[in-house]
Structures
1.
Amino acid sequence: MLDKPENKLDPSLLARFAAIVGDKYAITDPAAQAPYLVELRGLFQGHSPVVLRPSSVEEVSKILQLANDTATPIVPQGGNTGLVGGQIPLHNEIVLSLNRLDRIREVDATSNTLTCEAGVTLQRAREAAAAADRLYPQLLPSEGTCTIGGNLSTNAGGTAAIAHGIARSHALGIEVVLADGRVLNALNKLKKDNTGYDLKNLFIGAEGTLGIITAAVLRLVPRPLSVETAFAGVPSSEAALELLNIATDRTAGGVTSFEIMTRAGIELVLQYGSGCRDPLAAPHPWYVLMELSSQQREGLREVMEDVLAQGLEKGLMLDAAIADSIEQGKAFWRIRELFSEVQRHAGGSIKEDISVPVAAVPAFIREANAAVTALIPGCRPVPFGHLGDGNIHYNVSQPIGADKAEFLARWGDVNEVVFAVVKKYGGSISAEHGVGVIKRDILPSVKDPVALDLMRSLKRLLDPKGILNPGKVL
């Protein structure tokens, strides 16, 4: 937790902030504030004198100018789907909610760009792209709630990163309000702009500590004309990796998702996930959810069948089902999307979001499993996630019958042994969730000291009074 004293806001100053957005959009009632103050998993409970909901970049600018003049700390927030506490006001800061900045300013199908404000949800951005016969390729289970500004601020990943990259890959330009209220207008649609430093990438992934993203120009791609989805049982994570290699070689870039899951996690989904059923006739140690996409209308089904046949022939696959309808494909995906949520029914769950080189994923899982079960006998590792880009959500459920609070108190111990394996394989302790509060104090032990010093220097330069999301990341 942070060690700063709580911030007190003078009533007259609160009134000045409220006047910028209007009393209707300056929330002080505790019940109305509640949705803005609790992190998705319930790990953090915040408190704030006021939640401000501006409707324009001009209002955001005025809020930050006043905050900077009065040294009033601000916590920016999008859809409040973050998982590391970065969006929660832990010391009575003002919450600056961006979900009223929700206009889609332009869809340019010829330039393959979409310009929208920070409060637009990922789902709305994808729908707007689809209406122009284009695809916005980022995809997250929280698409109906998470926002473009939040995705960029955390540099979110998702299930399609193997083919299309993470949030940073999709942003051609951004609009940012700086700590002193100035507006950086870098909203260009250009793929080539060699006029100096690429400033937008300072703010993407900075979790609102350097400036507040208010709009972005997003890169679109052609919509695929055919999609095939398969759910396969495999004997090991090593076999899953070999199957990925076959699919990659066979499709030359057509693998758009490649997720792995353990049987233990599947059983939790079947037990607690409403409307879910086992896609295969018999249980298997590991599972793969694979999606292929193509710009050809015909032939992709045969490609998927060929990939699976090669896997079966080489002993890499035990059984598989190919979705015969959109509904069946969604049912496959629902199993994967519920994987993290259902683990709460099994008691305490310590959750890690790590990445290692793709080739090292099986070795990482094997060694991390051995390390955590030696540390806490009886605990149940439930690794799953994006094998295609090396990002594994390494979750550990408590031993059956154990005390939940005592187990969760070992979070730091689990971090230590898991991150040691991550370091061995040249990985990262945060793949797509960010640093926030949870990993802030760990960062100095894993980050290059020169890089960390540069990060601190940028923070002092862009936010000299320390008002932007204080105590997060650094």
2.
Amino acid sequence: MNFVHSTSGRNNHAVVVTRVADMQWHAVEDNRTVGRGDSSRRPDGRIFISIDAWHGAVFDRIADAMLTDLPTPLYTVVDEADHDSRSAWERAGFAAARREWGYLVPTDPQLTGLGSVRPPSGVTIVPAGEAEEEPLRALDRIVRDEVEATVGWQTMPAEVLPRPAGTTVLDPSKYAVARHMDQYVGLVRVAPLTRQPRIGLIAVRADRHRRGIARALLAHALGALHRSGTASAWAEVNESNAAATALFESIGARRAAGTLELVRR
């Protein structure tokens, strides 16, 4: 690989930025590594990049090198409260594309008001780990196709995980599903992270919307976490997803963070 970009740095020392691997860049000044850049391709094909550098000038050198070597569009993610990082990326030509809210979600039914929520008539909840794999995968494909045909899957929060081509359900044991007769019609995925479980996805087939299925799935998932001794979970919601925002805020979820996705086209 070894594409080399050299320019003057601080104290008249040259900053040499080298592409040391297919998706990695190093910045070296006076024989010291002063910054790194990384890129990754998400399952939807988009390339996300990140830069770790102590000084703004080094950040700019690495950004210039990566932008020279990589095709556009390129994406990155920053904490909305990190104004310095956002400014650095804007210097490199990136602009805000979307905002994602992070919610701290209580699990106690006395706080969420979900203790009395039951699935609508004819619908049952299949607990995590008990769903049949093939119907689950089929539902996941239906949901993704419906999202892609409307707002686009790139607007959804993404778990960036290595996935075999065409595989979207990596671990079926993380999913609880809503079943109507012999069909799976909704799902919720909870990643049981040690520090704080993460509600990675909650979705219902388009032809079953507005029947209370999503609320029942959330009640089930949060109830299971509460019974296991977990006080809260984490969830991320696209700012434009009014239905999901209303659902989480109606159960007492507290907006605790904001993330910006930036793009350079």
3.
Amino acid sequence: MIALSFDTEEFDVPKEQGVDYDHIRQGMEVSRFGITRILDCLKENGVRATFFCTANFVENAPDIIQRIMQEGHEVACHGCDHWEPKATDFELSKLRVEKVAGREVYGYRQPRMFPVDEKEIKRMGYRYNSSLNPAFIPGRYMHLTTPRTCFMKDGVLQIPASVTPWLRIPLFWLALHNFPEWLYHRLVMRTLRHDGYFNTYFHPWEFYELKEHPEFRIPFIIKRNSGREMLCRLDRFIKMLKKNNCEFITYNELAERKIK
């Protein structure tokens, strides 16, 4: 089982680099461009995914949200404002996203995968939480002792991002940017055989031509293989998985199978 996901947010990486940048107006333009490329790729390959959306993105791109749902993908919550996550986001993002989507939302992922209050997640009616990257990434994540596969906590299914079984090598978006593709594919297949499923996440702005915008001050490991190069990498990755007869499912479908 393959669960692809995309953190669908307003592009705010330049602000992390100290750039005076309007992450709502300018950031939405970047993300809209990237999400269109992603949706076209998924449609061409006939696979479905889960889109963890900020309330800001949903309210500024209702047409994109409709396309996501019409093409069989899942919409989940990713807080309200990606740049300034707040404790009330669990509740407000669900209300705001469901209002635009017109359907119930079952999953949550905190911006930057920061910790969440599981009791609040449960209270708001979420079925699963995917806010954990069980790896050691200096300056970002220190989770070497947490479970690396699905587990229940306070009545909510936790769906950590997939990492390799032994050294916990992270297999998220930065890995596909920077690893040789043959190595990334091999590590994914090894993890899939070990765990019985694989899930990972990307962002729409990775598929924008970041290298053409030095004013963003994007670090090399992020802008490397971005834009069309990243689109081709995603396409080849999906095709490799399909060649190996992998089934693509949404996170909610994964949760339903794990909770039974």
4.
Amino acid sequence: MQPRNMSMSGVVDLAAVKAAQEAKAKAEQARAEAARQGGGGAISPADLVIDVDEAGFERDVLQRSTEVPVVIDFWAEWCEPCKQLSPLLERLTVEYNGRILLAKIDVDANQMLMQQFGIQGIPAVFAVVAGQALPLFQGAAGEAQIRQTLDQLVQVGEQRFGLTGLAVDPDAEPGGVQAAPAEAAGPYDALLEAAVRALDSGDFAGAVQAYRNVLADDPGNPEATLGLAQAELLGRVQEMDPQQVRKEAAEKPGDAEAQIAAADLDLAGGHVEDAFGRLIETVGRTAGDDRETVRVRLLKLFEVVGADDPRVIAARRALARALF
């Protein structure tokens, strides 16, 4: 089976590049400081590779993906290509020194996870970034290709979600997996209050700017991330003619822009599952740039609702199936 690659370019918010560079520098400083202090708050390189089952998936993958991009290696004992790929992934994970975490899932023991991700054959490699699943490649892959994919994944985590990774100490005892110590941020109360006031008054552009001001200094701020997604949604819907949008969506089921606009209206009106279902169906109907545009908008709508919402988790799984 030939490797199947997943472009991540559509996930990157170019407006966040400057903030991402600052976040990366802070992460490197935190790792260096942890090393100077004897590894306080750091983890062992052995803890960068973990075995995951269905019972621990939410804790070990979904929750950890809010700290660091999690690469998932779907494998089985009988799979010969897996025996070549898995050691390579493990070695590279240690080499990336806390910028990724590798979760190994035995498909024979975890059939439900295999089905939820729509796995048709192994080896199959996915990533979860801030709770969002991204297929990376399926089948055998060379080291150069894997490095390129991992570099993109790390970049997405930093630029789009502000994930700065884990501090690693070679002398730390295995079994102490924990988050890297967070650098104190803030205070942002005044900016967040200004954003809320702007939202309440219908000044969505002002709210967007206020939230972006917070994120420029603290890219991982969850309140600002959620607020920005909501303000952008309300700003888009404000300019729409609902009747016309619904008419075009009904007449053009395969038109990406028509379905995206209708999904925005669905979500703004509180019809969360309708919005998600509409875009997942559109992913299945479209291809190329249109498909990528729909996928990226769906990821933005996930942010509006929140990564921990059960409807978002279910929709992520459905999206992963639709992409294959």
